[in-house]
Amino acid sequence: MNPAELNAQLDTLLALPVENEWVEFKEARDNFDLRDLCKYFSALANEANLHGQPCAWLVFGVRDKSREIIGSQFRNTPASLQSLKHEVADALAPGITFIDIHELHHPQGRVLLFQIPAAPRGVPVAAKGHYFGRNGESLVALSIEKMDRIRHQLRREDWSAELVANATLADLDSGALVIGRQRYRLKHQKNALLLAEEADWDDAHFLSKLKVRKDGVLTRAALLLFGRDEAGALLPVVPKVSWILKDAQGNDLDYIHLGLPLIFVPDTLFSCVRNLTVRYIPPGTLFPTEVPQYDTWVIREALHNCIAHQDYAMGGMVRVVEKPDELIFSNLGNFIPTSVEAVIEEDVPPEEYRNSCLADAMVQMQLIDTIGSGIRRMFQTQRSRFFPMPDYLIDRERQRVEARIPGRLIDERYTFALIQHPSLSLHEVMLLDRVQKKAEITAEEAKLLKRNALIEGRAPNYFVSAEIAKTIGEQAQYTRNKGLDKTFYKQLILSHLADCGQVNRKGFEDLLLEKLPEILDEQQKRNKVKNLLAEMAREGLIKASGRGPLVMWSLKTKI
User: Average pLDDT of each block of 10 consecutive residues along the chain (559 residues)?
Assistant: First the structure.
């Protein structure tokens, strides 16, 4: 917006009634807490959605009650103001941010107009895991009623439930229907009465029972699951699943593209995956254990989840990329739950599904599990095989979800830790997995693992503890990771000065760097030397002469 348009927009906002749930004025003369700003973003975005507004507004530099412009110095440099977009996106789920931050130099003072997008349809916005709304002008927790109203927006727009008026049973693959009925009988094998009834159903009745045929008309879900390849022309987009084989350098070696009916895809794709054998020797035995790279159920669950939760309206394809040491499953569409961690920890059914009609039919044929434990079971299965945990990459901006299933051992100490500690909670295993992958963990998470003697070290360089390292015969590597006692390094410094008289810092680095813990990088080792010298100077053991890079160190008293 140009200055004239911004002035007009501000005048429009100032003229609104005092009680408005999608506009908020704040003085913010000098500063405003980022956590509070994110809470207001959540509340205003959710209320804009509920009031049918394309966006909401948070205005700094204006008194709330009187609407008097007083000016704001909040983040008064362009760089600090623009960095706010990234900071806010990191704190919100989904990871959205401002449409724009408008800076208006009004005669009465600087005014900031934060243009906030309405919450996406069906997806309320949370700040640090908490949902906010407004009650008049008050910031409050988003009520259950309002949350349901937002979440139910997706339910009313189930792409897979749309009827295909010109589709007939002739557009379906008879072989796919046979497989579907076999899967249905397997799911309900304990219900003898239902199985007896199913034997008398024709295909039309079977499809109606799956709820993919309504009032005699086939849904898009019916065509996705059972449609002949030519039936793709009856859909607004042609669904595809691609398998791509890559080498370690990322070069394509082979590929296939699979279309309708999607119920055939898992078996075809599974036959393509090279499920090699992984060997490791557990502690206490001389004989190797042999396991396949991937668990069959995990592969099928990951693929079926992609098919069930793909946003077909976006027109892309489900992709399965096979690399030498991992399988990567990806589909288009935002991840609807708050986070993968929330799904695993809560272990309850999600309140919404993108393609409810399709997902419900897949449940009835035992293709996916929507009781809330599918993802959790994938993690549990990897844990029971002593393999690394799956990694989920959720790209809110590109609306893409990626699941990476490791097919190799990363750190044998992690594997042996799981073998030796079968009572670890899944949460603890996931944290230990992050440590072996050199991913960050919080101070509280590190405290939990240290309390159970699973890791040692200081942030961010945590490593497997001595208890586990000793058990698997890696005391030497453990010592190289942890380093020697600080007294040893100080004695080396004192001895070196006694021999040389004066030494610069590079001389100490040449002496000590190779003796410092291997887990530290080069810069961290140099900082360690610097800190040792400073500590010894404070203790009165050594002294410095000169400044900057020319500083020389010597003994304060002869030894």
Answer: 90 84 92 94 96 94 91 91 90 90 93 95 90 91 89 76 96 98 95 94 97 97 97 93 96 96 95 90 72 94 94 91 97 80 71 83 88 81 94 86 95 85 91 92 91 84 64 51 70 83 88 82 89 90 84 78
The predicted pLDDT at position 514 comes to 82
Measure Cα distances from 167 to 154, 214, 221, 529 in Å. 25, 12, 12, 75
CA distance 172 to 509: 73
Residues 132 and 140: beta-carbon distance below 8 Å: yes
- Angle of helix 356-364 relative to helix 174-187, nearest 10 degrees? 70
For 342-394, what is the HEC assignment? Answer: HHHHHCCCCCCCCCHHHHHHHHHCCCCCCCCCHHHHHHHHHHHCCCCCCEEEE
Q: What is the DSSP string of 413-480?
A: HHHHHHHH-TT--HHHHHHHHHHHTT----HHHHHHHHHTT-EEEETTEEEE-HHHHHHTT-HHHHHH
Distance, C-alpha 105 to centroid of its chain:
40
User: Which domains occur in the chain, in start order?
Assistant: 3-150 (3.30.950.30), 160-234 (no CATH), 412-482 (no CATH), 486-555 (1.10.10.10)
How far, in Å, CA of 508 to CA of 525, rounded?
Answer: 11
Beta bridge partners of 104: 111
What distance in Å separates the CA atoms of residue 206 and residue 517, rounded to the nearest whole number?
Answer: 66
Residue 437 and residue 462: Cα distance in Å, rounded? 11
Distance separating the N- and C-terminal Cα atoms of the chain: 73
Smallest Cα–Cα separation from 421: which of 435, 432, 406, 410?
Answer: 432
pLDDT of residue 464: 63
Q: What pLDDT was estimated at residue 39? A: 96
Hey, what are 140's tokens?
């409050």
Q: What is the number of H-type helices and E-type strands within the chain?
A: 21, 23
**SS3 sequence of 305-325:** HHHHHCCHHHCCCEEEEEECC
In degrees, to the nearest 5, what angle opens at C-alpha 491 toward C-alphas 488 and 493? Answer: 115
pTM higher than 0.70: no
Report CA-CA distances (Å) from 7 to 1, 2, 29, 66, 73: 10, 9, 20, 18, 18
Q: Which of 351, 352, 347 is nearest to 376 (CA)?
A: 347
Q: Could you give the CA distance from residue 557 to residue 559 in angstroms, rounded to a whole number? A: 6
User: What whole-number distance in Å separates Cα of residue 176 and Cα of residue 203?
Assistant: 11
